[in-house]
Write a structure and sequence with these properties.
By secondary structure, the chain is mainly alpha-helical. It has 3 helices and no strands. The N and C termini lie far apart (177 Å).
Length: 149
C-alpha cells in the first residue's frame, strides 16, 4: 500500500500557520500572565509568612506572660481552697447544733430568772417602803441633831 499524501492548497497551509501563530501568541500571553500571577502569589505568601513571624514574635511573650500569671493565680486559688476546706472541716467539727441548743437553753434560763425577778420587784409594796423610809428618817433626825450632825 502506498501512502497517500494529503495535499493542501498553499492558502490553507498559510491559514493553518497563521492560526498556529495566533494560538502560540495567545499561549505566550497566558503564560506571561500566569508567571506574573505566580510572582504576585509568591509575594503575598511571603507577606503572610512575614506577618505570622512578626505576630508570633510579638504575641508569644505576651501569651507566655499570661500563662505564667494564670499559673500563679491557680496556685493562689488552690491555697485559698485548702484554707476554705480547713475552715469547713473546723465548722463541721464544731457541732453548731449542740452550741445553738446550749445558747437557747441559756436564753430560756435567763428569761425565767428575769421573770422571777420582775415578779419579786412587782411584789414589793412601794408605798409601804416609802412610808417606812419616812418613819425611819423621822426617828433618825432627832438622833442626828443630838450628835451634831
Amino acid at each position: 500500500m502506498e501512502e497517500e499524501k494529503i495535499r493542501m492548497p498553499e492558502t490553507d497551509f498559510e491559514k493553518v500557520l497563521q492560526r498556529l501563530e495566533e494560538i502560540g501568541k495567545q499561549q505566550e500571553k497566558y503564560e506571561k500572565r500566569r508567571y506574573f500571577l505566580a510572582k504576585v502569589r509568591l509575594a503575598i505568601s511571603a507577606c503572610v509568612l512575614l506577618l505570622w513571624v512578626v505576630a508570633g514574635c510579638i504575641l508569644i511573650p505576651g501569651i507566655n506572660r499570661v500563662v505564667q500569671q494564670a499559673d500563679e493565680t491557680f496556685c493562689e486559688v488552690e491555697t485559698a481552697m485548702e484554707g476554705l476546706q480547713s475552715v469547713a472541716d473546723q465548722i463541721e467539727a464544731a457541732d453548731i447544733g449542740g452550741v445553738m441548743s446550749k445558747v437557747n437553753a441559756l436564753i430560756t434560763d435567763g428569761q425565767e430568772d428575769m421573770t422571777a425577778a420582775m415578779e419579786k420587784i412587782s411584789a414589793i409594796d412601794i408605798e409601804g417602803l416609802n412610808q417606812g423610809i419616812q418613819d425611819l428618817q423621822a426617828i433618825v433626825a432627832p438622833l442626828a441633831r443630838l450628835f451634831g450632825r
